[in-house]
Amino acid sequence: MAAPPPKRIRRRLALAAAFGLLPLTAACGGVSLAGDDSSKSFTTMGYGLGDALSGARMDQARKALDIKIRVNEGSFDEQQFLSSVAADDPPDVVNMDRAKIGGYAARGALLPLDACAKKEHINVDAYRDPAIDEATLNGKLYGLPNSYDSRVMLINGDLLKDEGLTPEDFDTSDWDRLERTTKKLVKSDGGKLSRIGFNPKIPEFFPMWVKANGGALITDDGRTATLNSPKVVEALEYTSNLLKIQGGWGKVKALNDSFDMFGTKNPMARKQIGALPFENWWVNVLAQNSPKTDLVAVPFKDRKGRTINWTTGYSFAIPKGSKHPDEACTFIKAMSSAKTWQIGAKAKRAEAKKNKGPYVGDFTGNAAADRDIETKIWKPSGNEAYDKATRTLYDVQDKGFAVPANAAGSEFTSAWQKAVNRVLSGEQTPKEALDQAQKQAQSVLDIANQGKR
Amino acid sequence: MTVLDERRTNDAEAPGAAPPAAKRRRTVGERRGPAGPLGRAIRMILLIGCSIAFLYPFLWLVSASFKPAQQVFDNALIPETFKPGNYSEIWDAFPMLTWLWNSTVITLAAAVAVTISSGLVAFGFAYFRFPGRNVLFALVIGTMMLPGTVLMVPQYLIWDWMHLSSSQLPLWAPNLFGSAFYIFLLRQFFLGLPRELFEAARVDGASYWTLYWRIAVPLCKPALLVTFIFEIQAAWTDLVRPLIYLRDPELYTVPRGLKAVLDQFGEGGEWRWEIVATASVIVTLPMILIFFLCQRHFTEGIATQGRKG
Amino acid sequence: MTAPTLGDPRPGARRGGLRAAFKRRDTRAAYLFILPWMIGFLIFTAGPMIASFVLSFTNYDGIGSTQGVGLANYKQLFDDPSVAKSMMNTLLFTVLRVPLQMAIALALAMLLLRVGRAAGFFRTVFYLPVMTPHVAVGVLFLMLFNGNVGVINKALGYIGITGPSWTTDGPWIKPGLVLISLWSLGTTVVIYFAALRNVPQDLYEAAELDGAGPWGRFRHVTLPQISGALFFTLVVNTIGSLQTFTEAYTAFYGTGQAQSYTSDDALFYVVYLFQQAFQFMHMGYASALAWLLFVVIVVITVIQFRLSKRFVYYEGDAR
């Protein structure tokens, strides 16, 4: 073993040493290059160019700006965003989940848009209230909507026919009936879950169930958490039980994780699920992949039978330290204007036509744009199920509500989500979990509110 | 800590030192397999079984990377429908080649830097007797125990302060200053070298550098190689630092890139596991192949190292 | 006796005053050799440790203004249920993983003995997973361990066991992660293999003469002889397990979507530390978290060293 290693290794080591010098120069060059880049071009974060719509809209923004736009695709990443702001090297504009905006605004990571709106003559009233409210903290606006996701009930019409049921069996205002339907539709093969009767989509959609039960997660001013109020606890008891009667969360999620959500063998087509509340974008996906499925989309009802629609979405915001705040403002205006949306929607309709799927409309958070798209671009495709679904989606646009903006942002979200998860994993009862979450949430809210700025 | 020091008695027999074989007791390793044919067969069967278990995840990945989405979880090793299109799709969607290149450069830089610097420092601690040596070496050992994650935050702040917190530099430049674990390891090797070699060279008027470069390094090549390989493995597989320091996708390393692929195509994204599998194959396979080709040197070196512990 | 090595005390080493020592040429040379480490230690270890200690008493977040908050961060460590939970998760994972890893690695290493040249091949096979990026291991975990369609449960199904939902059912997540982590135990195998080969053969022969069976030989010869290697891997693997990050982060906390569906069951201490530091930018609180981890690791390591005095055998010890 003490024998000197063969020549080959020596050569390899020398080669490696030679390579070792490369990065020295490469890295130094890279660093200075990055520095130049960020001041000369306009960078975006969190905006993807995945489909015709987003591409066409970006083209409009490019026309409005006389600076090169560099699009950093890929979803918004909290960790990357905050460290870029801390390092004083942020993107010029960022597209982020509105639920997070309050938290970032509270710690000073975002610039208020009020002056920008004034300067560019942006009519803030044209946007839908929940989208504006969710991005407004202490009276200041921090984001303008880039998307507006609505939630409706999506029911598997084919399965209803098989089982002799009607859409009313999935009426979310009658919780007992909904539970009976769930029990009826759930199916197992040899101990293994093969069909989900009804997926309440918690933890994600928990705010909608709370609202349906007449409760709220937080006061309207966004300062006091109300996570352990009786209405919230009851909503969690009910929804977690819906999963329990189908074999428990572990099984439901495992089956859910194996779904081909974006393909032709999606759970609706394969009748792997009875019904679930879902965001509007999945209607679009289903329309492209299984236009023959009898999809029944109906509004989500609260327990008094009124339509409710929990809306979320992404908004454009300008980070503190943006090198081009003025251009960012122009960019945001260009991206969210009714005209741009129309052009984008046309491009998407053309794409849908090419893929031989029906165009199912777009939902923008800009009420004027929505109207334009609904009346001028979208046309009934003749596919009755999807045409109806689109109608439903437009009908619920005005019934939207959002979780009030708050200074704790994603930490507040995480508090109630974790509580739901603790119940689902059988660790705690709903009351215990929400008591704990309430304590945590109030503590992060207090720190965020009195702390900085 | 004291215990580790006591190991010195043993380490005097370190392979680099190669004390005359005749003086050593015959070890199990030198015994020629008197295990009966039956015993040997049983061992082989068990080993082959275990090897299949160890190789299976790789095979599964490769096979999944050639499947269409619906068949990924059919768990058949031979794809029912052969779909090489996954590779071109991922090649178009992500700068895979850039990531592979970044990783290669950073990994080599990290390994070369740490091998050279740790070797120097280790020799300093092994050859010389100087005031402060014991205190400083105790610090080296102390650092070895210090979990890296503890320093994650302040190190980030230092790079941030130097305006380098979004570059590739933090991924390898600290290695220029040696690493406690390797210093410790290499010092143990140097300690095993016969003193007379160095004394003779000194008499001939060799400089300290010559002692290191011409005598110590050639004799300790296996140990240096182990350092090199360990660091290649560590740098190639690291996710934490790329996650903290790399924001521009053009600068990503392969693990960071794979995470970006997972974000987009995995859970919460498009649920297209065949694409994730394809990316996993691309980031895993080159290293596996290189390692397989050079395995003799690699495992021999590490095996030698095993005597340390 | 073997020839004197660098490790042996130098006969007639010069002794003198400190001042004289620093004037000596070899002292200066020595400091030149260790200079890189000294610089690195100051910049990347000592400096950061001091900084981290100071930060832990502030609410520093890199964006807003910074104030001293006294002991508030340390107080919060005890009020924050996620700290206790993630610490328990991490300790449980470590307690499950380290002994299993050592036992299986030892079994594999013993199998490798006496198979002749094939040992090299198998050793490589066992080592390959170590070269696999941990992110890919996390990905594999999600794919192979899926409770519904994963191959693990399919295999269990063949022998009549309905496997649990490894990736989604809270209590099963940690055992699942332990199992996938065992895949990369190659380094430990290689170390044990080398240690086993170094055991003097005559000890076995002597034991056999004393009438020791296979178990007796294993218990009284093998284990004491490789106790050094066992101890080394115990310490290193424990410290490593306590800092587990990538697999759990990749599988459960990588994206907001994944996070929203995961309770604290997969929350490892370093994952939580990372979230606090880089996702929420609570650098002050994260520093306090880091110091708690440091204390825990030091305590565990000291205990291990204490115990090792009783169990680790060194050549030259009186038996």
Number of helices of chain C: 16
Would you identify the CATH H-level superfamily of the largest domain in chain C? MetI-like
CATH topology heading of the largest domain in chain C: MetI-like fold
The CATH class name of the largest domain in chain A reads Alpha Beta
So how many helices of chain A? 18
In one word, what is the shape of chain A?
A: globular
Radius of gyration of chain C (Å): 25 Å
Helix content of chain C: 55-70%
* Major sheet of chain C: none
| Number of self-contained structural domains of chain C | 2
Number of β-strand runs of chain C: 0
Keywords (chain A): Signal
Protein name (chain A): Extracellular solute-binding protein
Organism (chain A): Streptomyces coryli
InterPro entries (chain A): Bact_solute-bd_prot1, SBP
Fold topology:
The complex is a heterotrimer of chains A (453), B (309) and C (319).
Chain A: H1 7-40, E1 42-45, H2 52-64, E2 69-72, H3 78-86, E3 93-97, H4 98-106, E4 110-111, H5 114-119, H6 129-133, E5 136-137, E6 140-141, E7 144-145, E8 151-156, H7 157-163, H8 175-185, E9 187-189, E10 192-198, H9 206-212, H10 230-244, H11 249-257, E11 273-279, H12 281-289, E12 295-298, E13 300-301, E14 307-310, E15 314-319, H13 325-336, H14 338-354, H15 367-377, H16 384-396, E16 400-401, H17 410-424, H18 430-450
Parallel strand pairs in A: 1-2, 1-3, 10-11, 14-16
Antiparallel strand pairs in A: 3-15, 4-15, 5-6, 7-15, 8-11, 8-12, 9-10, 13-14
Helix pairs in contact in A: 2-13, 2-14, 9-10, 14-15, 17-18
Chain B: H1 2-6, H2 8-11, H3 37-65, H4 85-93, H5 96-127, H6 133-145, H7 152-161, H8 169-172, H9 180-191, H10 195-203, H11 208-219, H12 221-237, H13 240-245, H14 254-265, H15 273-293, H16 295-306
Helix pairs in contact in B: 3-15, 4-15, 5-9, 5-12, 6-9, 12-16, 14-15
Chain C: H1 18-23, H2 25-55, H3 72-79, H4 81-112, H5 118-127, H6 134-144, H7 151-158, H8 170-182, H9 186-197, H10 201-209, H11 214-225, H12 227-242, H13 246-253, H14 256-260, H15 269-279, H16 283-311
Protein name (chain A): Extracellular solute-binding protein
Keywords (chain A): Signal
Signal peptide (chain A): 1-26
